[in-house]
Amino acid sequence: MDTSYNRRRFLKTTALSGLGLSLAGQLPGLAAPAPGKRVGIIGLDTSHSTAFTKVLNAADASGELLGYKVVAAYPYGSRDIETSTKRIPGYIEEVKKLDVEIVNSIQDLLKKVDVVLLETNDGRLHLEQATEVLKAGKRVFIDKPIAASLSDTLKIFEASKKYKVPLFSASSLRYIKGVEGLDKSKVVGADTYSPAVLEKTHPDFFWYGVHGVETLFTVMGRGCQSVVRVHNEGTDIVVGTWADGRVGTFRGTRTGKHNYGGTVYTQDGNTTLGPYNGYQPLLLEIIKYFETGQVPVAPEETIEIFAFMEAADESKRRGGAAVTLASVLEKARKA
Confidence band (pLDDT; 50, 70, 90) for 30? Predict the structure, then answer.
């Protein structure tokens, strides 16, 4: 999350749980990570970058992190989204205190690292940046949104296939409390909600609504065929119909308190989703992926999530008409 509330909550939680968020000046010199464990970051314009670095580079980092350390970072990152660009100078100073070298290009970065966290929240840059990493044969986690268009989303996964490097992308809301232990084979429907604040450079839900949509697909799984969107100034509701007849809804709020959660309806009763679990569960999955090359989220599911959001936008443009995911995917493949 990029909200100050969740950033403060994450820092507090990880400090209390012993993940070792070291204060500035407590790292007299970080031991060099073992071969294969050097992490590079692209994009110091999001709080995710500093949060992940503080956990990975802590003097008493958890053994679950397998010795991975951030050793270098390329700061850019958005150059024209003000809420992002203004963070870069401060975040550069934060990671430098954690023994992270600042480099001038992605090519310089790739010479110094084994794996990459593509963290800039400007999805317009992701296709070009991810392709550089994939060409170099390095595993890459792409933070949300994977791209700023459905067309670019497809092209990123095409590049992954071309260069034979599996990649992983997800929102941290995939690991919201309540998901663990859920028997997804018994899910008959779900309602989820999250903030859906807008950024003019990105399609509607791609910027922030992706969090709640990812939660919906985490519990419902793939197979959504069509969506209908109900729009007003403060809230948008998207109703998705799955191929097996199940219905899942996402409610995105523009104003008010930023909450994340939902309800899952199962054959055994209802399960409440929430509260937000912080970044740690996602980071552990990223490390497993770096170590094994096995992706925890299939490319097809990530593509369907972004097709769902694009279909929701199209439904809005059509005044709430039903729009199939197949139709927006066909259009994106031609773009």
Answer: low
- Given a cut of 70, whether residue 206 has pLDDT beyond it is yes
Question: Residue 152 burial by CB count (10 A; 0-12/13-18/19+): exposed, middle or buried?
Answer: buried
Per-residue pLDDT reduced to its tens digit, 157-194 = 999 999 999 999 999 999 999 999 899 999 999 999 99
At 29 the pLDDT is 54
How buried is 136 (Cβ within 10 angstroms: 0-12 exposed, 13-18 middle, 19+ buried)?
middle
Straight-line distance from the first to the last Cα atom of the chain, in angstroms, rounded to the nearest whole number: 30
Q: Is 274 left (phi over 0), alpha (psi -120 to 50) or beta?
A: left
Could you give the domains of the chain? 4-121 (3.40.50), 173-279+305-334 (3.30.360.10)
Distance CA 250, CA 262 (A): 9
Span 267-325, pLDDT tens digits:
999 999 999 989 999 999 999 999 999 999 999 999 999 999 999 999 999 999 999 99
Indicate the burial class of 268 (C-beta count within 10 angstroms; 0-12, 13-18, 19 or more).
exposed
Percent with pLDDT over 70 in the chain: 91
| Closest by CA position to 193, among listed 266, 273, 308 | 273
75, two tokens: 């700061």
Do 276 and 1 contact (CB within 8 A), yes or no? yes
Q: Could you give the CA distance from residue 95 to residue 55 in angstroms, rounded to a whole number?
A: 11
